[in-house]
Amino acid sequence: MRLEPIAAPSFGRRVLPPALAIGATFVVAALLAMIAGGNPFAVFGLIVKGAFGSKFAILETLNSATPLIFTGLAIAVAFRAKLWNIGAEAQLYAGAVLTVVLGTGALSLPAPLMLALCGLAAMLAGALILLGPALLKTRLGVDEVVTTLLFNFIFLLFVSYLLEGPLKDPMGMGWPKSARLIPEARLPRIVEGLRLHWGFALALIAAVAVWIINTRTTLGYEMRAVGQNAEAAAFAGIPVTKVILKTAVLSGGLAGLAGFSEVSGLKGSLTLDLSPGFGYTGIVVAMLALLHPLGVVVAALFVAAIFVGADSMSRAAGVPSYLADIMLASALLFMVLAILLTKFRVRRD
Amino acid sequence: MDLIDILLSASFWAAAIRIASPLIFATIGELICERAGVLNLGIEGIMVAGAFAGWIAVWGGLPLWGGVAVALLTGMMLGLVHSIFSVPFGLSQHVVGVGLTLLATSLTFYTYRVVLPEVSSPPKITAFQPYEIPLLSDLPLVGPALFSQTPLTYAAFVLAGLTALVLYRTPLGLAVRAAGENPQAVAAQGLSVTAIRMGAVVVGSGFMAIGGAFLTLSAFDSFFFDMVNGRGWICIALVVFGAWKPGKAVLGAILFAAFDALQIRLQQTGIGAVVPYQVFLMMPYILSILALVVMSRRAEIPAALMVPFNKGER
Lengths: 349, 314
Fold this sequence. Notes:
- Chain A is built from 13 helices and two strands; from the N terminus they run βαααααααααααααβ.
- By secondary structure, chain A is mostly helical.
- A two-stranded antiparallel sheet of chain A has the order 1-2.
- In chain A, α2 (about 40-50) crosses α3, α4 runs antiparallel to α5 and α4 packs parallel to α6.
- The N and C termini of chain A lie close together (about 5 Å).
- By secondary structure, chain B is mainly alpha-helical.
- Helix content of chain B is about 70%, strand content about 0%.
- Chain B has helices spanning about 5, 10-35, 45-60, 65-85, 95-115, 140-145, 150-170, 170-180, 185-190, 195-220, 230-240, 245-265, 270-275, 275-295.
- The model of chain B has no long low-confidence stretch (mean pLDDT about 90).
């Protein structure tokens, strides 16, 4: 079989495969729900109800989407330039660590300054973490997929050390957790009394900012050129190495902000389970969004809804909540296939 | 106990060979995929699935070798999924691999919860027992280290040897290597690059799954959620370290495992009292990155690795 590019894909060609991909995901999930003894329609109903069924549920979904918007943007930015950043998990924790270092009483500043400083420091930490593998890639040709992946393990062990040593809360009853942030370092709630915090708004601003960078700046153009064809970009006089390093700084910085937002907005302190894999889920979010920054917001909401909904579905229907992870993994695989089929036609020969 | 004592003790080397065994299976599996031109990042998930499938099959009543066969088949099926996406469709091998790892891992955990909903600690099986090879196991140091292992460890070494033999001494091996070096030349010979690459990914993934099954059927006697714990990613580094050659890859796996066995022992010495234990646990990953950095200076990487092949296109 052979793939033939389609010069001008029709509207149906562009819409049908992604729709089928979503459909196929639900078919897979329905079959698995049935194997677990659940009625698929009831299961999907419970997922939707768990994610959007009440004001509390909706806010919970928005809260869960917040870190995914940041990590999704981080991955989208990197993948667009074909910098395969699989290390957003480590970059997120780096941001969280710096937020805790600065925000637990080492400094005393008015809230706006404190928050700005913590956020910037978190971005810087995330950026530095990705700069290492990016330099190894540009200088020595070391594949960044494996280095960024392995660094996730290294950095999590480092955080574990910090939480049992220098950053351990003396009042924490022996648990490996950090001290709580001082009030000036806490991102306030958007509406007092509800859990939704300003990290969500910050994530939306970040998405718009990345969209502007992508479409309105030289860097955005250069990143896409490098991603499409690095050799051609170099031939056209684009400083490929510099662009890759700038991409790394932007991507790592966005993932670092996820750590800042989770600690400062939601949790108030750092523990080892701050992220249940937001760095990896960000890959799914970015791919579902076709690497579009505004699409990332939509995809993150979708993914968060499935996670939040599956949690409450699992309690009610007795179907394991891992169904959510399976849905996302199959959505990812079906979607990359669907995108291909919008651009190519399969020919038998 | 100081370093010399550790390095001269048979139990240390026996542990090193034991720790190396799953890595050898999975590294050889990854090596076969990469030699044919496909980077298989599904390895971590395939190992998780293999560990579970082999264990649940034995728990359900199959003999131990039956469990190994079930793991092999599970891995081959997941490999088929990977190869359909990555070979004829030529989709990004990075994204497909990460997707497959997510899918295989979550499917495994889901199945575990469906099969054993109420269990807090997983049931145990009777795992492979060490088999002492007559005469050879009586040799000093080498005997206990190499010849008093479980049958699955011997199988790992046999598999590595067979793979080297097939890769370098048979027309099939030549075709596989050429598919990763110069697919156009393979197509010019009238062979199907697609079929060779898909076959390599399917078989290689089967071996990865046996690597996972080693953990449940030979090293331990039960399945735990975090039991593969990054071993798959380390095997990807080991393939690079072994310069895509089976012999060197096995040596790399043993060296790596020896280091792993050493750090566990060092934790119990005076050094362990001073250095936080997390530093020891980091070492395997740091070592892998260093290996990648050192080996990146050599140009032995298969030329067409990660390059999709579309017939009629140059």
